[in-house]
């Protein structure tokens, strides 16, 4: 008995037919006639020396041999498709597909897109704003920007600037609440998108960092950071603003951070791509642009006393 593989077209016809359990649907997916598909499967059965399908009146079902072959055929074509996609995309230096969370996209990436387009007019930038974990190959993603602690095994992972949080508000509201103690009477707001962090990064921890024993219990809660920041911009209240979400508004004066004490987080944003892909021209250009943009607002962080959150004593 030889291990020589049968023709790839015959195996492909079998894999699709086994997935659909229908010759007609398989023929439609492969854009061939049912007779042509049936011929391919028949030739595969002759190569094997056993039937792979039981042909019923209006349906088919797998034989024991078909059930044995189907999982491996499916896995093999899945891997082959992934490899082909990866190889094909190596030839494309003009398209860059980036995924980032909706809040980071809205507050950091989107306001700066004009600058990237002006600096790299030959790169077609595409965004997928999602928190869903994506497969770089299956979802055809070049770069992911994600927030958390990592690690990121098997990926090129570049930590971006340290993240911190500090109370931010409109200049008008800052005039009403000039000191941390005055915040006891202020309309405080809550960004619930970072509730997963450990140790917790919340108002109670920040007040503890400035020497106050105070836990606010009332205020508007937001599931997304950009919505909380938008509310602060509108003068609706004061929020613990995350660096990436508020840095541009602080730098340009739409928001202020009057108390100068920030909590430094363990979690951070990372620039992620498949290992080795970081040298592709459009990915390298995008990474450099992000780092350059971060440097433009670095002076804001320099004005703050950043206390590592793990150094804030617990009760």
TrEMBL record:
Domain named HTH lysR-type: residues: 6-63
BP terms from Gene Ontology: DNA-templated transcription
Gene3D superfamilies on file: Periplasmic binding protein-like II (3.40.190.10), Winged helix-like DNA-binding domain superfamily/Winged helix DNA-binding domain (1.10.10.10)
InterPro entries, sorted: LysR-type_TF_proteobact-type, LysR_HTH_N, LysR_subst-bd, WH-like_DNA-bd_sf, WH_DNA-bd_sf
MF term (GO), any: DNA-binding transcription factor activity
Superkingdom as given in the UniProt entry: Bacteria
UniProt cross-references to Pfam families, sorted A to Z: HTH_1, LysR_substrate
Entries under CDD domains matching the protein: PBP2_GcdR_TrpI_HvrB_AmpR_like (cd08432)
Swiss-Prot/TrEMBL keywords: DNA-binding, Transcription, Transcription regulation
Family, as annotated: Belongs to the LysR transcriptional regulatory family.
NCBIfam families documented for this protein: PRK11139.1
PANTHER family xref list: HTH-TYPE TRANSCRIPTIONAL REGULATOR, HTH-TYPE TRANSCRIPTIONAL REGULATOR TRPI
Protein name from the UniProt record: Transcriptional regulator GcvA
Originating species: Shimia litoralis
Gene encoding the protein: gcvA
């Amino acid at each position: 008995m030889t291990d020589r593989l049968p023709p790839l077209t015959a195996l492909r016809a079998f894999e699709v037919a086994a997935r659909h359990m229908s010759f007609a649907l398989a023929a439609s997916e492969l854009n061939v006639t049912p007779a042509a598909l049936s011929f391919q499967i028949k030739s595969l059965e002759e190569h094997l020396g056993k039937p792979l399908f039981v042909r019923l009146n209006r349906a088919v079902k797998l034989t024991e041999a078909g059930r044995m072959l189907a999982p491996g055929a499916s896995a093999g074509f899945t891997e082959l498709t992934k490899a082909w996609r990866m190889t094909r995309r190596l030839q494309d230096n003009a398209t860059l597909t980036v995924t980032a969370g909706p809040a980071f996209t809205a507050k950091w990436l989107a306001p700066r897109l004009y600058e990237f387009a002006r600096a790299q007019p030959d790169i077609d930038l595409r965004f997928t704003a999602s928190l869903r974990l994506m497969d770089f190959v299956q979802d055809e993603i070049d770069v992911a920007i994600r927030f958390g602690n990592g690690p990121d095994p098997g990926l090129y992972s570049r930590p971006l600037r340290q993240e911190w949080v500090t109370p931010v508000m409109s200049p008008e509201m800052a005039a009403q609440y000039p000191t941390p103690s005055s915040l006891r009477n202020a309309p405080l707001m809550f960004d619930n998108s970072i509730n997963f962090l450990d140790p917790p990064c919340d108002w109670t921890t920040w007040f503890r960092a400035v020497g106050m024993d105070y836990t606010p219990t009332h205020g508007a809660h937001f599931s997304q950071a950009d919505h909380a920041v938008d509310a602060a911009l509108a003068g609706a209240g004061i929020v613990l603003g995350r660096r990436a979400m508020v840095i541009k508004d602080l730098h340009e004066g739409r928001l202020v951070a009057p108390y100068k004490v920030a909590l430094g987080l363990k979690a951070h944003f990372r620039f992620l791509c498949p290992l080795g892909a970081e040298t592709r021209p459009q990915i390298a250009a995008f990474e450099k642009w992000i780092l350059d943009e971060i440097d433009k607002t670095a002076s804001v962080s320099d004005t703050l006393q950043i206390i590592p959150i793990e150094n804030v004593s617990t009760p």
